[in-house]
Amino acid sequence: MIGLASPSLTRGICAPARSLAALTRRRLGSARNARDRGALQIVSEGTGRFIVGGNWKCNGDRASVTALIEALNGGDVGDNVDVVVAPPFLYVDQALSELKSPMQVAAQNAWVEYTLEDETHHYDSDSGAFTGEVSAEMLEDMGVPWVILGHSERRTLLGEDDTMVGKKVAHARFHGLSVIVCVGESLEQREAGATMDVIFKQLRAVADEIDDREHSSWGSQVVIAYEPIWAIGTGKVATPEQVQAVHAGIRQWLKDNVSEEVSKATRIQYGGSVNEGNCETLARESDIDGFLVGGASLDATKFAQICKSSAVHYKAVGRA
Ligand code: PEP
Predict the structure, then answer these.
(1) Number of separate domains in the chain
(2) CB 166 less than 6 A from any atom of ligand 1
(3) Reported pTM
(4) What's residue 192's pLDDT?
(5) Whose CA is nearest to atom 1 of ligand 1?
(6) Which end of the chain is more exposed for a tag (fewer CB within 10 A), N or C?
(7) What residues are labeled active site?
(8) Domain of 257: which CATH number?
(9) Which of residues 96 and 36 earns the better pLDDT score?
(10) Quick one: average pLDDT of 286-307?
(11) Ligand 1, atom 8: nearest CA belongs to which residue?
(12) How many percent of the chain have pLDDT more than 70?
């Protein structure tokens, strides 16, 4: 657990990834040594269960979805890990009834109406003339416990901006849904040294909307998926050091801008070309609390192996 929530860490976040990673490692190292001596108050690192999400995106048909669910049910994802799979909307109901507990189901999106000029409009109902959309209200009605929001494919292909994603998160929380909210930078933004600025802006929109929305809350039910756009579906995975540095920065931001309690309780997943071969190395990092998996989640055996990397994580952070 890192404890060193100092302004210098926050300042360092905009530094190039390698030096930031080094800074984080130094801080982690010194925090661990101090913890061993019992001298330091531990103020960071997640405390929640490892969580692995499978984002099936717009893939599959009746036969392949049935086969995938059967294979997941027959497999072994390990213990002490939350597993959430997100089929396309048409197959959500099937997954809800056929997927064995404790594996859970997520939708890949939920509608929120926010274009009304009336700023006091509190989204009490999402029913209406929104052709093709599915609302958080409907997900709640169907008993869908999770929703993925703000995936970069929706941001880039469908034009969802930070505010819209923030409103969707706040509204989904209002309906009691647990949320995986995706954040992450493009390659251009990373190369320009803007990674953390981009992510903090995305997080700010979520925090503001949750604050603004009556009966919405962050709690421990908002999972953040850090998904660098350049690593999604490209086979180009971010290094453990790059991911750890960003996750530590996110956790620090939560501490400074939401609360220390939320910063500890929030699970931060990494997503971007995670597979059965690289998951264990990534899982060793203290602030990687799970994965959001695209391509490899369509193969039950590979996905189960990724879920089982939870054991490596707990061991690495001394929670085995
Ligand atoms: C994703 O789309 O959320 C994702 C991480 O995809 P992939 O694992 O295929 O890179």
Answers:
(1) 1
(2) no
(3) 0.85
(4) 98
(5) 294
(6) C
(7) 151, 227
(8) 3.20.20.70
(9) 96
(10) 98
(11) 294
(12) 82
